[in-house]
Known about the structure:
By secondary structure, the protein is an alpha/beta fold. The chain contains eight helices and ten strands. A seven-stranded mixed β-sheet has the order 3-2-1-4-5-10-7, sandwiched between helices. It has a three-stranded antiparallel β-sheet with strand order 6-9-8, with helices on one face. Helix 1 packs parallel to helix 2, helix 1 crosses helix 7 and helix 7 packs antiparallel against helix 8.
Amino acid sequence: MPRYRYLLGDARRERARLQHQAGIWDPKALALFDRLKIRRGSRVLEIGPGLGSLHKDLRRRVRGPVDVVEPSPAFADGVRALSRRDGFGDGQLWQCNLVDAPLPRNTYDLIFARWVFLFLPNPEAHVKKLVAALKPGGRLAIEDYCRWTLRMVPEPPEWENFLKADGAFFATQGGDVNIGARLPQIYAKAGLDVIDITPTTKYGRPGSREWDWLTTYFLGVMPQMATLRPFTPKQAAALRRHWLTAGKKKTSLLISPTVLDVVGRKKRR
Length: 269
Ligand SMILES: C[S@@+](CC[C@H](N)C(=O)[O-])C[C@H]1O[C@@H](n2cnc3c(N)ncnc32)[C@H](O)[C@@H]1O
């Protein structure tokens, strides 16, 4: 396996995409935080906060600093700027990949990650590392994809190969685009009791922000996906045309990948 490289980067266009995506999905994460009943003074770690909309909310709930692992210099700078603004103080920020972060043991009440695990090779080792960093009774909460609800209706002929290329794109860096569906078993093996699995699937018609979110992402990565067999450049071009035509019909439908909230609790011994 070549050295891990994060697939989506932190360029301006990706930051705009993340912001749009957060507008659609943050309410679901905030509902998860409500269910978790995060208390003032809790020790919390967030992995891969990106632009930090949820990081900001976690700090507000804790009324204090929240630790971070974030390899992107641009995203890490954003987190630092955010900490200066809200008056809750600086958390520990490891600016590196999770695999390299020297996390303390038995420390956190909660560790949270949204849309990070689908990129990571060897998710089992990453979960094990996070379990070691949790206090006994602490919780790991990951939001990630159970991918294959992703559909366009009516379905284009290229769709099945497109889905295979979507999986293959993440696999180029050892990731699993459907990781959410595997997390419960991975948690159990790492010594967590699974206490919540909550799904959310969205859909959108042309003109909706959900349609725009899925369209921007997939048309953006289509040239890379076109190189991943059995999908071909010809099929990618045909699907792109189909997608743009579907975008002009008000009855067209895009159904999103399902986001699973998977929460596990470390045994108290
Ligand atoms: C798709 S973005 C999601 C950002 C944010 N969690 C959100 O929900 O909007 C993936 C995030 O994971 C970070 N990331 C990528 N590889 C990572 C790794 N190996 N360890 C920790 N974070 C990683 C990226 O820099 C980015 O911040």
